[in-house]
Amino acid sequence: MSIYNLPIISQEEAGRRTHKLVLRAPELAGACAPGQFVHVLCGTYHDPLLRRPISVHNADVKEGTITLLYEVKGRGTALLAAKRPGEYANVFGPLGQGFKLPNTCGSPILLLGGGIGSAPLYFLARRISETVGCQTSTFMLGAQNCDSMVCREEFAALGPDIRLATDDGSLGCRGFVTELFAEYLASSESSTPPLVYACGPTPMLKAVALIANKHNLPCQVSLEAKMACGVGACMSCVVRVKDGGGEKYVRCCKEGPVFDAKEVVW
Amino acid sequence: MSIYNLPIISQEEAGRRTHKLVLRAPELAGACAPGQFVHVLCGTYHDPLLRRPISVHNADVKEGTITLLYEVKGRGTALLAAKRPGEYANVFGPLGQGFKLPNTCGSPILLLGGGIGSAPLYFLARRISETVGCQTSTFMLGAQNCDSMVCREEFAALGPDIRLATDDGSLGCRGFVTELFAEYLASSESSTPPLVYACGPTPMLKAVALIANKHNLPCQVSLEAKMACGVGACMSCVVRVKDGGGEKYVRCCKEGPVFDAKEVVW
Amino acid sequence: MVAENNRLKTEIAGISMKNPVMVASGTFGFGREYADFINIEELGAIVTKGTSLLPWPGNPPDRIAETPAGMLNAIGLQNDGVESLISEKLPWLRQFDVAVIVNVVGKTLDEYAEVARRLDGVPGICGLEINISCPNVKEGCIAFGTDAGMTAAVVGSVKAATKLPVIPKLSPNVTDIAAMAHVCEDSGADAVSLINTLMGTSIDAETRTFRLANITGGLSGPAIKPVALRMVWQAAGAVSIPVIGMGGISCAQDAVEFMLAGASAVQVGTANFINPNAGPKIARGIDDYLARHNFEHVKDIVGAVKSNNL
Amino acid sequence: MVAENNRLKTEIAGISMKNPVMVASGTFGFGREYADFINIEELGAIVTKGTSLLPWPGNPPDRIAETPAGMLNAIGLQNDGVESLISEKLPWLRQFDVAVIVNVVGKTLDEYAEVARRLDGVPGICGLEINISCPNVKEGCIAFGTDAGMTAAVVGSVKAATKLPVIPKLSPNVTDIAAMAHVCEDSGADAVSLINTLMGTSIDAETRTFRLANITGGLSGPAIKPVALRMVWQAAGAVSIPVIGMGGISCAQDAVEFMLAGASAVQVGTANFINPNAGPKIARGIDDYLARHNFEHVKDIVGAVKSNNL
Ligand SMILES: Cc1cc2nc3c(=O)[nH]c(=O)nc-3n(C[C@H](O)[C@H](O)[C@H](O)COP(=O)(O)OP(=O)(O)OC[C@H]3O[C@@H](n4cnc5c(N)ncnc54)[C@H](O)[C@@H]3O)c2cc1C
Ligand SMILES: Cc1cc2nc3c(=O)[nH]c(=O)nc-3n(C[C@H](O)[C@H](O)[C@H](O)COP(=O)(O)OP(=O)(O)OC[C@H]3O[C@@H](n4cnc5c(N)ncnc54)[C@H](O)[C@@H]3O)c2cc1C
Ligand SMILES: Cc1cc2nc3c(=O)[nH]c(=O)nc-3n(C[C@H](O)[C@H](O)[C@H](O)COP(=O)(O)O)c2cc1C
Ligand SMILES: Cc1cc2nc3c(=O)[nH]c(=O)nc-3n(C[C@H](O)[C@H](O)[C@H](O)COP(=O)(O)O)c2cc1C
Ligand code: FES
Ligand code: FES
After folding, report:
1. Enclosing H/E stretch for A158
2. With b meaning 16 or more CB within 10 Å and e meaning fewer, what string describes C46-69?
């Protein structure tokens, strides 16, 4: 874990208000695992002040690059999106606990992404196929509409089974990714229960977690929280989790951002 | 006087830490007079917060452009220097009282500039020659060293008599521009006293004013002050001037930045 | 044009305004300098530069210093005095269809009262804002605003000297802003405005000198917005007279936040320096907000922040 | 390496440090999280997260909100309590050659005193910083820091409970910071530190809710620097015990300004989040400043700002 000033190799639009940023980062590319994030400095002086947490969308160890896929939401991401090749991005990481990869390929693997939440699932799917060797992930991706469905082709290239849902039906089914999930469970003939990985807005993750918990499926979710330090020092980013009979706050940046859906108090 | 979002035509280095910025500004080019300034927004959000006052270095009515010549001193000018053609500079102006041009060409005209203070003298010399028709301005330009002597060739193209002084003697005489001025007065054989125009750091202006006042020469100086509004509303930028028998504060941005050297309380 | 929009019409302490967006004292002169740039009739009200009984020379320069997302000022209330206001500034301002509130300063109780008395009945004035909070004048002034007894005395004597609505402007440099607002209400204030600047300083490390000749100055701009918003929320919770909110407002969203916190109107200060058109733009932006969120009138958002479920 | 530099060696209230740059409570955990990034032995001291007698759960999220050049936090002093500090955090910290100051919080006088008592004699602790100023806990705490009598009581009872140097940390949310510093000195404090955060709030206009679950929070970061610098200058002028300055320090120049204003040492808080290496970098930068300006020792710049000639 170190602080890096990374040269920007490319920055391109990858959908509505969504940018893909490729950074030269040989050390970081080797160090980071799917589900981990980096903490990105977006401004020049003191406004905006804080770094922005962004998941690793891809790490290419051979090329020595990492890719971030992010949506322009507010002031920090707008400044990040204005940076050009030749400039630098100051980041530190890798941070947090990533997704636990399956040990074997026995179970079907479901990757559920909502909106820009799909970003880290690409790296996850690649690592599952490269290191564990499983090729049969099923992607279920949701978005508001066709335009905001990010990197569909990229995902399609990773796995043949890709199912889409949009709020307005402009692409795939009309509805939510949770409906695709429920449908899958209803129609699945597989005897082995699937491993579920989900990332997206909290209401979606909650819905997914409730379904997964009901069916007693192993389910990992990547949560978002407002972060200051990103390293576990400030207690800003807490998530409520179960603690024996009670509950407690743990740090999203340190104990997370990936949590077992059963542990989280939704 | 209006607020403009001006397209940047070019931005080039014009000496050590000095930049020349050309803006497309047909209306402003026609409206501004030598010695006036514009108020430039340098940052994107709230840090740095205030606009920066910069004199008009040149206004080309035909081309519809204005040129700013500025030194990178702190955070605002650093951000301005990072802007590229294709981007915009938000400015308002023209602001303040500029130099009073001579009515006729009877007197020799001395233009004294110290460091980046030389910037507005270029526009002034051009206007004097274009509108009054006088060709015989003498430039006396001072700088720390050769590298920080800005736009020497540009000035030379306007008038054959250009005298230089640097603190370290790396160009022209070793010494201050005030010494050139004193020397000129000592050796001048002209019977008509010169008109003096000066712009530069306050200690230099003070020295020039004292000499000019001693010889009872008409002398206009362009002063600097910390400015917030730039339009006369906030009383931030005051300069102490004589007021009958007493003294008072007047606004550098509104009653100045050009003052009669005799009026200023040095 | 927003000026004719019923949705934004606001009345505070008997002062009618086209919209709830005023420009703050000391940041807009007497309107004249900005009239070249913008249509000042699009403003809810103009609050003038602080005006004293006799002319005040103000502090020596440097009077300002930039700070992160803010600025310090120590103008020292340079102004030409109340008679110049009456004979020169107000006649010019009367040409315009915009409410004018005069900001009043003094070094003694009597001075405050006397300025108020002279302004009573002068045409073209809608109200008096009583500056008991400027941190940049050596004698008086801030002492009034940080002491409950003094505050009560100033408000009381100004009230007695005028029929105009009286709006004390609170200092944020106090432990308990709600208590200060309460004292003003009890003393007969028709509204309160807040916040004035936070007292601060700036040092130049290279020269080892203070950046302001006055040593300390008042901090304004976006940097102070969180403190201002908190104080407006506390003051609004403590009084039933209207609260006018300010401190770091630079866009319509900021203004809406102050109104949600309980301000019936807002003032825009430092933002005028960055964008002379900030006031009218904010008024239009509030209107857009009301439309987008289906509010019938701007008063419907005053104090409408939901208290969190804890 | 700066660590071995005599020019920077500092002693405050009997606490020896390699340099005058500490990391501020609550922004550096117990050092462990940042030890991966930086050499924590390059710091003058680590001030731990606020520690209470029993574990505190902290406030619900959201606990922070970004503001212009600053941030609000309402962590609510989540911590595992003094026993966990003694049995887990301190043994780990003792591996390092760096001074450790424990920040103490409590809801009652007795709690403060009891935490101090348990820490007395525990190896690896150089001093206690008494947090009487956190604005984010419903009961106690800030009430202590905004009332002179309560402040005196806390300082007195902590002093009686420990042989360690006691450093009350002052709240900026008061009318008269010099008076508060003075009360601490009179009550036996060995030094004072300031400022803690300014109380503020943030509202989301779109949802019409407060951004912090706790409604209000503490403002920190560059935005507050001018206020902090002014208070440090006032406090340093009011007491003869050492003053530790903080509030918005993000570079060596900022740190030098605080020392010129009268701080014998500084703390770096929010800046750690932006650059984990801020502390060591600032220590090196102060050293450069001393060299450039021909100062023999860092103590020579303490209070060295020239008063302006007015
Ligand atoms: C572990 C983690 C991984 C993330 N990965 C990605 C990703 O790969 N791609 C992507 O587009 N977004 C990702 N996000 C969300 C991203 O951090 C926010 O969209 C971003 O911080 C918004 O910054 P802004 O300047 O655009 O918005 P602003 O509104 O200006 O932000 C204001 C403040 O709120 C915080 N904030 C705002 N929205 C969020 C949010 N949703 N989550 C956390 N903090 C927020 C900001 O960090 C900042 O401190 C991730 C968040 C977390 C916690
Ligand atoms: C009427 C006028 C005309 C000017 N014309 C020119 C010009 O043509 N070319 C040029 O290079 N410079 C000119 N200056 C000076 C220029 O405004 C400052 O160098 C610039 O504001 C510094 O900003 P910064 O962000 O680099 O420095 P910072 O140190 O970050 O500035 C901090 C604050 O101090 C103010 N400030 C700093 N230095 C000065 C200064 N010397 N005068 C006034 N305010 C200052 C800034 O405006 C800002 O508010 C002029 C100043 C005035 C008043
Ligand atoms: C340059 C300047 C001058 C000011 N002069 C006055 C004044 O004369 N009277 C007054 O009550 N407030 C004065 N103020 C305070 C503002 O009216 C306002 O309360 C404060 O700046 C906070 O608002 P803002 O952050 O929007 O600027 C002045 C502020 C500035 C920046
Ligand atoms: C997230 C966060 C947590 C904090 N926790 C504590 C704390 O536990 N005890 C304390 O005395 N101060 C605490 N503070 C206040 C800081 O120690 C410091 O006084 C303040 O942030 C001002 O300094 P800065 O602007 O450099 O951050 C905290 C500040 C922040 C930002
Ligand atoms: S962001 Fe600081 S603990 Fe998680
Ligand atoms: S800068 Fe505002 S009056 Fe000159």
Report:
1. helix A152-158
2. bbbbbbbbeebebbbbbbbbbbbb
Q: Give residue-wise pLDDT tens across range B119-130.
A: 999 999 999 988
A231 with D70: Cβ contact below 8 A = no
CATH of segment(s) A2-95: 2.40.30.10
Residue D98 lies in a domain: yes
In angstroms, what is the span from residue A37 Cα to ligand 1's centroid? 11
Q: How many CB atoms lie within 10 A of CB A168?
A: 11
pLDDT at C142: 61
Residue nearest (by alpha carbon) to ligand 2 atom 52: B224
Other CB atoms within 10 Å distance of the CB of residue D236? 25
Q: What is the mean pLDDT of chain A?
A: 92
Q: What per-residue confidence (pLDDT) applies to C3?
A: 46
Cα(B194)–Cα(B188) distance, rounded to whole angstroms? 10
Q: How far apart are CA A177 and CA A200, in angstroms?
A: 10
- Token pair 């939510």: residue: A176
What is the C-alpha R_g of chain D? Answer: 18
CA dist., res. A67 & res. A58, Å (int): 5
Single out the residue of B169, B159, B168, B164 nearest to residue B137, CA to CA.
Answer: B159
Q: Are D261 and D210 in contact (CB under 8 A)?
A: no
List of chain B residues whose C-beta atoms are within 8 Å of the C-beta of residue C27: 229, 233-234
Round to whole Å and give the CA distance between D153 and D134: 17
Q: What are phi and psi of B197, to 5 degrees?
A: -125, 130
The CATH 2.40.30.10 portion of chain B extends over 2-95
Å between A258 CA and nearest CA of chain D:
17
Give me the catalytic one of C134, C141, C184, C251: C134
Q: How far is CA B167 from CA B143, B175, C86, in A?
A: 7, 5, 53
- State whether residue C274 sits within 8 Å of chain A by CB: no
Residues of B in contact with C270 (CB under 8 A): 49, 228
Q: What ipTM was estimated for this complex?
A: 0.96
Mean pLDDT lowest among B136-140, C95-99, D154-158: B136-140
Phi, psi of C190 (to 5 degrees): -90, -20
Alpha helices in C106-206 (DSSP H): 109-119, 142-145, 148-161, 177-186
Segments of chain B assigned to CATH 2.10.240: 226-266
Least confident of A260-264, B142-146, D192-196, D293-297: B142-146
If you measure CA to CA, which chain B residue comes closest to A46? B47
Domain with CATH 3.40.50.80 in chain A: 109-222
8-state DSSP, A207: H
Cβ contacts of C222 on chain A, cutoff 8 Å? 47
Residues facing A238 on adjacent strands: A251
User: What is the dotted CATH code of the domain comprising B226-266?
Assistant: 2.10.240
pLDDT tens by residue, B162-195: 888 888 877 877 778 888 888 888 887 777 889 9
Two tokens at C309? 């479920």
Active site residue D134: yes
Closest residue by Cα to residue C69 from D66, B80, D250, D68? D68
Taking each helix axis as running N to C, give the angle between helix C225-238 and helix C177-186, from 0 to 180 degrees, rounded to the nearest 10: 40
Q: Which ligand is nearest to the CA of A255?
A: 5
Contact status, residue D99 vs residue D265, Cβ threshold 8 Å: no
| pLDDT tens for each residue of A129-145 | 888 888 768 888 888 88
Gap from CA of C136 to ligand 3 centroid (Å) = 11
The residue count for chain A: 266
Mean pLDDT computed over every residue of chain C:
94
| Residue pair C176/C185 in contact by the 8 Å Cβ criterion | no
| Residue predicted with more confidence, A162 or B74 | B74
Is the Cβ atom of A95 under 6 angstroms away from ligand 5? no
| DSSP SS3 for B52 | strand
